[in-house]
Design goal:
The protein has eleven helices and ten strands. It has helices spanning 12-30, 34-40, 45-53, 72-84, 88-108, 111-123, 239-275, 287-315, 321-345, 356-364, 374-386; strands at residues 128-131, 147-151, 154-165, 172-178, 189-195, 201-206, 217-228, 232-233, 277-278, 281-282. The strands form three sheets. A four-stranded mixed β-sheet has the order 1-4-5-8. The chain has a four-stranded antiparallel β-sheet with strand order 2-3-7-6, covered by helices on one side. Strands 9-10 form a two-stranded antiparallel sheet. It binds flavin-adenine dinucleotide.
Length: 389
């Protein structure tokens, strides 16, 4: 279990100060440019440096490496603010960098790996991605085929990955591959820190998506990529266990993004129904509208309460996989359900792209799929619930 964040206690004022910093950052560095980034389907590389300068990347990095050693709750707050403001694509990109890739360096990196990567991941000098999924191995990660074979003092990496968030801009890829092809199931998988400029490391096309338009998502190809022996992260052939422990944090991240994104959508819907008129009264005056808003607000609040509990457990190192899966399952399903309900209250305008609720609907859909689909979350929860006591 990650030790990240167990050393530093933040006050309510610290959190508020951070919220203000993010709000200013969004106003100055995101809002004026986001539409163009969606058209480009990628952020300019300098945007990552700006995130780093503002102190919004990899904030859990230990003080020994120049970091803030912040608790997970602060990282979650960053994802929360971008999501609530309607920039779910930016939140997911930060999540991939700070909550998916960086923890492998913090938790499993050698001293040299930490000194080399962490300062650069904090400053935005390096962008990171986590590459687990393969064309024939998504939910079933155990069947991955990419491999690394030891040749003298080097690992030789071959294979491919798909759907990798930040893959186009990444300088560092944390990659899961088979290191013992004779081992079955979860055995024989290891993690590596791979510099993306090494010979044989190729980036594929930027995949065109339903939503999350400014966030790049790509395929990666490894053709005899030679890695130094010390590129290994953590235990040889222990990679599956490492992935399962780190997925807890990723699922918590998806959960807060779901909740905050829905809160933002609901706020804008309340404003809309208070303005819009039909049959001589405001849409808000229909009983159906009051009931729908009441149902949706309750849905959000209940999920937030469960998230807060999970986040506190995580900071104490006590959040287990099944409970994190419950948070991810419940909040991402709630997000799609509620945002669909919000869109309905916008009528035809909800279907028009210039209304942010339309983009929110498109962006939300992936949350039930990545970081483990809803069906896989149910498997994890069900297995634990039915396990012999
Ligand atoms: C925009 C985007 C960003 C992503 N970012 C990343 C990233 O940064 N890094 C990364 O490694 N991956 C990433 N992914 C991959 C993502 O995690 C996978 O797509 C996801 O885990 C599902 O795998 P799959 O697509 O292969 O679907 P499949 O595994 O083929 O699933 C197909 C269907 O079968 C169901 N299913 C599968 N197994 C079972 C089962 N045992 N019981 C019941 N139903 C089952 C699934 O729930 C789903 O409905 C991303 C994907 C997208 C689209």
């Amino acid at each position: 279990m990650s030790k990240v964040g167990t050393f530093m206690q933040l006050t309510e004022e610290d959190f508020q100060g951070f919220r203000d910093t993010i709000a200013r950052f969004i106003e100055q560095e995101v809002a004026p440019y986001h539409e163009q980034w969606m058209k480009d389907e990628i952020y300019p590389r300098e945007f990552w440096n700006k995130l780093g300068e503002a102190g919004l990347l990899s904030v859990q990095t230990p003080e020994a490496y120049g970091g803030m050693e912040a608790p997970a709750s602060l990282n979650m707050l960053i994802l929360e603010e971008f999501s609530r403001a309607g920039y779910l694509d930016i939140a997911v990109s930060i999540c991939a960098h700070s909550d998916l890739a960086t923890p492998y360096i913090v938790d499993f990196g050698t001293e040299e790996q930490k000194q080399h990567y962490l300062p650069k991941l904090m400053s935005g000098e390096m962008v990171a991605c986590l590459a687990m999924t393969e064309p024939d191995a998504g939910s079933d990660l155990q069947s991955m085929r990419s491999s690394a074979v030891l040749d003298g003092d080097e690992w030789v990496l071959n294979g491919s990955k798909i759907f990798i968030s930040n893959g186009i801009l990444a300088d560092l890829a944390v990659v899961a591959v088979k290191t013992d092809t004779s081992a079955s199931g979860a055995k024989g998988i290891s993690m590596f820190a791979v510099d993306t400029n090494l010979p044989g490391f190729k980036k594929g096309r930027n995949l065109e998506k339903m939503g999350m338009h400014a966030a790049d998502t790509t395929e990666l190809f490894f053709e005899d990529v030679r890695l130094p022996k010390d590129a290994l992260l953590g235990t040889l052939n222990g990679g599956f266990g490492h992935m399962m422990s780190e997925l807890v944090r990723e699922r918590l991240g998806v959960s807060i993004m779901s909740i905050a994104h829905t809160e933002g959508a609901l706020e804008s819907t309340i404003d809309y129904v208070n303005e819009r008129k039909a049959f001589g009264k405001h849409v808000a005056d229909f009983q159906n509208t009051r009931f729908r808003i009441a149902e949706m607000q309750t849905d959000v609040e209940v999920n937030r309460a469960f998230f807060e509990k999970c986040c506190a457990l995580y900071d104490e190192g006590k959040l287990d996989a099944a409970t994190a899966a419950m948070a991810k399952l419940s909040s991402s399903e709630m997000q799609c359900r509620v945002i669909d309900g919000c869109l309905q209250l916008f009528g035809g305008y909800g279907y028009i792209m210039e209304y942010p609720i339309c983009r929110a609907y498109q962006d939300a859909r992936i949350q039930r799929i990545y970081a483990g689909t809803s069906e896989i979350m149910k498997e994890i929860i069900g297995r634990k619930a039915l396990a012999p006591k």
